[in-house]
Write a structure and sequence with these properties.
This protein has 184 residues and is of the alpha/beta class. It is built from 6 helices and 6 strands; from the N terminus they run βαββααβααβαβ. Strands 3-4-2-5-1-6 form a 6-stranded mixed β-sheet, with helices on both faces. The radius of gyration is 16 Å and the shape is globular. The N and C termini lie far apart (38 Å).
Length: 184
């Protein structure tokens, strides 16, 4: 059995309208599973899973429901399994959550802690993707922050035979943060 086509879609975490591209890519590839970083540790595989999250309207301290609502509703309507591939609150303790949410600079110890968490998260992403690659022959869409799609990332070193769709500038450079007065 051939492995499923793996499609990575870069998510800007809101500096452009991400849902428009997410919907377009889902309609094009018709995946059975959409693996989604911002869904953190939630798995929406059944009608009951979808009803619970749509009724509770809560994700975490790091992800508001509004950020993911359109994709959740779209996948629910299309009967696509939407799987979180990250840790609750992205693995950040309360102190890091507060500083990151308020965009306060981190001290040296917090920066080291953040680097360790980012490595753990990357390993978890890889593990989850490999797990779901064994569960289907249909394409798998992985929606993940564009930062994780850098050539030097563990994710890109691990998965070679895949398609990568990401926001870029007019020169084709991967965008990992908002840009001014430049076309995306």
């Amino acid at each position: 059995m051939n492995p499923p086509l793996l499609v990575f879609l870069g998510d800007t975490h809101g500096f452009i309208e991400d849902f428009k591209k997410q919907k377009e890519v889902i309609l094009r590839f018709e995946p059975e599973f959409v693996l989604y970083e911002k869904l953190e540790n939630f798995s929406l595989e059944s009608e009951e899973d979808y009803k619970n999250i749509l009724n509770n309207k809560g994700i975490s301290n790091m992800t508001s429901f509004n950020e993911v609502e359109k994709l959740i509703k779209f996948c629910h309507n299309k009967k696509i399994k939407l799987i979180g591939i990250d840790f609750k609150n992205f693995g950040f303790n309360k102190g890091l959550q507060d500083k990151i949410n308020r965009q306060i600079s981190l001290n040296a110890n917090e920066k080291r802690e953040l680097q360790l968490i980012l490595k753990e998260r990357a390993n978890n992403h890889i593990k989850k993707i490999k797990e779901y690659m064994k569960k289907t022959t249909k394409p798998i869409l992985v929606i993940i922050g564009t930062w994780h799609l850098r050539d030097s990332s563990e994710l890109m070193k691990t998965f070679k035979n895949c398609r990568i769709i990401f926001p870029c500038n007019k020169n084709g450079k991967l965008l990992i943060e908002p840009i001014r007065d430049e076309e995306v």
